[in-house]
Write a structure and sequence with these properties.
2 copies of one chain form a homodimer.
Chain A (H helix, E strand, L loop, with lengths): L1 E5 L3 H13 L4 E5 L3 H9 L5 E2 L3 H5 L4 E4 L6 H11 L5 E4 L5 H7 L7 E4 L20 E5 L6 H13 L3 E4 L2 H32 L9 H7 L6 H10 L1 H24 L2 H20 L7 E8 L5 H11 L4 E8 L6 E8 H14 L3 E4 L5
Parallel strand pairs in A: 1-2, 1-4, 2-3, 4-5, 7-8
Antiparallel strand pairs in A: 6-7, 9-11, 9-12, 10-11
């Protein structure tokens, strides 16, 4: 099987590495606009050979992956379809799908894709064979897509270690707007609001706590990348921002009303909703929350993570609430199911820390 | 010095432990509504003796700390002032200050307080002597406060390891509304919005990425506690929620406009704002962001944290972007200043990981 990878950055390079490791009979041809990156990809073993042009890369390919940045995808997909034969499936790895599918979805060879992996780094130097291991990889076939080519693509995605799932392009972009793009908008707005406190009273720089850190961690991340993503999904993002604005207006009214019981009930609903969302993909049982107070010595968090890792307890999510000296504090861990929670509790107690399990039930 | 602690939970217990460790000549008397907690506090050495009533605890005390939950503070402060002599300073540890100061600020003996520590756990079992080490501890004196008693209080707070800072009650509540309470409102609204996606299309449960996890980590946390906090700061919280709503409306317009350069510039401003906020309290230089790609083996994060800890590199903030199998992924670390960033980079490279330093300059 011949796979053409157009754009040899983190995603393209990782597809190459994964294919080399998991599909030993495959041949991976790469093309990229920057010759140095292409050379690096060959050196790293991410591609077998470097093509001089998109045409050369696509010639004879069974599958073509367009892995350019979002803004460059329309032109790249168009070129790839032009350079590919009638039996070649052409896909992409962009974070938004509506625009591409509207434009190319009538070509039976084009099936959009989006692996949920790797958003946090870039560059072929960070590529790795296991980037897609267990990751959701959305595919957006249309009524016009070739069944044979869709089948080939989803087998390829599964062979790379990912979990393919078909979704309509419009639904994909709407869901991504809410669970991925909206948090970035909120983070930006929240730091803006906090920064405005500074100018209101210039003597005082507010100190921020863990909830603020968590909520704003992605503020301003990768302006170029996110500029493109927002641009290509602007309607859905704007809609989800407005929908959140509506929820915030309701929340402001609720809080101002002074109906303490209603506010408490609203928090309890939110706790349930978050649990349901994080559990969506777990199989080991419902999420258990453990609060651990750790003693004042460096490396404690590490020791904790090691102990759980060695005992096979998966940490599904983790939040650190360090003391200002960063040497002590509390850790909240989410583990999956009662059994893992019990095991974790025992292990952590064995290390001399105090553990409180927050979820009873089941 | 005799210190009375009313309410022997996490805060009250930690004040006691810190005083025993750092002020060996002090005597700590505790009172609490639950006899079992009071006994436990004695056993843990958090208090020297348990008083049978607020009157007994306050008799002869130099300083009285009211550490009841927010909703119970007005009654407790009133009782403490009634039970204390003219030379006793009475303070509290509540998360909001306006209501208390409006009610008791004319009594020269009452000075409100709020240590920024310990919000994540509760109970005397989690108390520890170093809870306040390096933590900001806001104090809200008024024009009517006794200078002598303010001086005594701020010395006590500093002796417990905290960094006292005077702030007007109104400004305190406004700042807390933005940097502490608002993130909780947002987290609740965001999980509500994502949960609504489920009902829109019941076949599909959206998978959430790291940005969603971070932004919603505090969703629904401690409904009872947060119900009280929101209730006691409802005007300021409602105002900051509305202000954020205004920012979101502007953001939605900006995104919908399709002005990609303006969107990119907005992200860049947010990045700067976040850095400025997190740097507010650092002394080692500006924050440096390091992205680390870690290999596929358990315990890597732990090993990393240990290596940095042992070398004296302070991790100011950390974000994990685990692969779905939780055994590999990327870690973003924020360290303080160019020197620590360089040291960290070397150490991490030495462990065989790829590191990208995102902040150049100086």
């Amino acid at each position: 099987m011949r796979i053409a990878v157009l754009g040899v950055g983190l995603i393209g390079g990782s597809v190459g590495l994964a294919a080399k490791e998991r599909l030993p009979e495959s041949e991976v041809v790469g093309w990229g606009r920057t010759p140095a990156n292409l050379e690096r990809a060959v050196e790293l073993g991410a591609i077998d050979s470097a093509a001089g042009s998109i045409e050369e890369a696509c010639a004879g390919a069974d599958s073509v992956l367009c892995a350019a940045p979002v803004a460059a995808l329309p032109a790249q997909v168009e070129a790839a379809l032009g350079a590919s034969g009638p039996e070649t499936v052409v896909t992409d790895a962009g974070s938004t799908k509506r625009e591409l599918v509207a434009r190319f979805g009538t070509d039976e060879r084009f099936i959009g894709g989006h692996p949920l992996a790797g958003a946090e780094t870039a560059g072929v130097a960070n590529a790795r064979a296991d980037l897609f291991e267990g990751a959701r990889w959305y595919l957006t076939p249309t009524n016009g897509s070739s069944g044979v080519l869709y089948d080939r693509l989803q087998r390829l995605v599964a062979a790379l270690g990912a979990r393919p799932q078909a979704i309509e392009a419009e639904a994909h972009d709407r869901v991504m707007a809410t669970v991925s793009h909206l948090p970035h908008v909120i983070a930006n707005a929240l730091v803006g609001e906090a920064a405005a406190e500074l100018t209101r009273d210039s003597e005082r720089m507010p100190e921020v706590g863990p909830s603020f850190r968590d909520a704003t961690r992605v503020a301003g991340s990768n302006p170029e990348v996110w500029g493109d993503i927002f641009d290509s999904n602007r309607e859905a993002v704007a809609e989800s921002v407005e929908a959140l604005g509506g929820r915030l207006r309701e929340a402001a009214e609720l809080i101002r009303s002074g109906d303490r019981n209603a506010v408490t009930a609203w928090h309890a609903v939110a706790a349930e909703e978050r649990r349901a969302l994080l559990e969506a993909d777990l199989t080991g049982g419902s999420l258990r929350e453990l609060r651990v107070v750790v003693n004042n010595r460096p490396g404690t968090i590490a020791e904790l993570a090691l102990a759980l890792g060695e005992a096979g307890v998966n940490i599904e999510d983790m939040a650190l609430y360090p003391a200002p000296d960063m040497r002590s504090g509390a850790v909240t861990l989410w583990v999956s199911g009662a059994e893992q929670a019990e095991r974790a509790t025992e292990l952590i107690r064995g290390l001399g820390h105090t553990v409180t399990a927050l979820d009873g039930g089941d």
